[in-house]
Amino acid sequence: MPTEIYMVKLGMTMTEGTVAEWRIPDGGEVKTGEDLYRLETEKVEMEVEAEATGTVRHLVPDEATVDPGAVVGYIYAAGEEIPDELPVAGAPPTAAASAPAASAPSAPAPVAEAPATVSGGRVAASPAARKLARELGVDLASVTGTGPRGRVTEDDVRGAHETAAAAPVAAPASPLARKRAKALGVDLASVTGTGPGGRITKEDVEAAANASPAAAAPAPAEESAADQTLPVRGMRKVIAERMFASLRDTAQLTMDMEADMDDCVRLRAQLIEEWADEGVRPSYTDIAMKAAARALCDHPRMNAQFAGAEMTLRGEVHIGMAVALDEGLVVPVLRHVDRAGLKEIAIESSRLAAAAREGKLSLDDMAGGTFTVSTLGMFGVDSFTPILNPPEVGILGVNRLREGVRWEGERPVRQRTMTLSLTWDHRALDGAPAARFLASVRDYLEAPFRLLV
After folding, report:
1. How would DSSP label each residue in 164-223?
2. The domain defined by 1-112 carries CATH number 2.40.50.100
3. Could you name the CATH architecture of 175-216?
4. Cα(439)–Cα(255) distance, rounded to whole angstroms?
């Protein structure tokens, strides 16, 4: 019997998933452990690996959305007869589909040679070549295939990688940025990335295209770029729906408060030095999350969920940490932050942020938050209005560290300050208790050594 390919269930809260893109074409060959399809849910994306070796047949096309556990395709082993009509999705394979024909010895089903490109402009390449290209960061569209009918092989990918090693190296780029660069004819090696870790974003590519000499002169009418319409789906669709619903269904207000960060800066420097051998570097966001957790214990009405007819004061403190990706915003959750030490918080936040950027978060990693912290300080932002993540009633915005001045009598003294931005649901609590909560966060940041005990 063929091996069924399922829509993987990533967590208890997953209700549907999308086969965003098949990595192996219909009729193509796959080996155990190779990437089979890219799964996309409301919150996360991940590569699903093959659990068997053989010929892949699709039951659903790219971008099909199905229930968790649904059968989306089959893998037929060598020697298994592949029927003209595949079993219905979710139904067990028929005898004809799983057994060789009685009248003739079984033989592997022939697979047609793939052309250089297939539907949608996808480059034809062997599964091993695709996997190697992803590992080496090689764009398959730039590789000349030497296989049957121009198919890209592993040797082709290695050759392209070796050739590129002698050329200017482009910074890491998001898939959307690479697609946009190809459409605009922009060389990624000439683009400076402004994303996390110097990653090139779609906006960087468009800025480079607008700044190029070619962009200064109007292109001939017949060569002008056409408008590009992108489907709003997956992560971006959910973000759009939830942000609109959050503003529509809650009574959101935002207040700002300044914190003297001199002692916090000194504490962080000491902790970085103390934990240098372990590679642990606490961020200001880590310290702010710990301060917020302590303040939530002091002001439990902010650590709550508001459901209209009732309000639940949560007994545990689980803080969501907003992580910005090119594709959208994800909010992994740190558990029991009130009881965790700063080192534990720094290690866990680093792990979750890395998993978010690599697309390895599970839905359970993002469930159960009682309060959220969002940071834009790394972008030079002084103040912003964070949007609530209902049913939570509060979210803290962490802004940039900046130079300020305080007065000691008539003498100005230089200090480092940070603006804290709190958005809260006025249905759950009024301005005065919200201000007292924010003041508690400020007080913990101004005397951060209290967070160590």
Report:
1. HHTSPPPPPB-HHHHHHHHHHT--GGGPPP-SGGG-B-HHHHHHHHHHSHHHHSPPPGGG
2. yes
3. Irregular (4.10)
4. 11
The residue annotated as part of the active site, out of 156, 336, 426, 443, is 426
Tell me if 1-112 shares its fold with 113-163: no
Range from 53-67, 199-213, 248-262, 306-320 carrying the lowest mean pLDDT: 199-213
Report the alpha-carbon distance of residue 433 to residue 442 in Å, rounded. 14
pLDDT digits (tens, 9 = 90+) for 136-179: 878 777 788 776 556 677 777 777 877 766 555 556 676 667 77
Sheet of 54-58: strand order equals 3-6, 71-76, 54-58, 29-30
Question: Whole-angstrom Cα distance, residue 319 to residue 354?
Answer: 17
| pLDDT at position 169 | 52
Residue type, 94: T
Question: Hey, what are 238's tokens?
Answer: 């959910």
Give residue 99's pLDDT.
Answer: 36
CATH number of 235-452: 3.30.559.10
d(CA 184, CA 166): 24
Question: How many CB atoms lie under 10 A from the CB of residue 190?
Answer: 12
Q: Is pLDDT at 54 greater than 50 in this prediction? A: yes
Residue 311 pLDDT > 60: yes
Of the residues 67, 338, 430, 443, which is catalytic? 430
Rounded to an integer, what distance in angstroms lies between the CA atom of residue 270 and that of residue 439? 25
- At the topology level, CATH places domain 113-163 in Dihydrolipoamide Transferase (4.10.320)
Which residues share a beta bridge with 255?
422
| pTM for the predicted model, two decimal places | 0.59
Question: Catalytic site residue 430?
Answer: yes
Domain boundaries, the chain: 1-112, 113-163, 175-216, 235-452
Helix/strand/coil for 160: helix
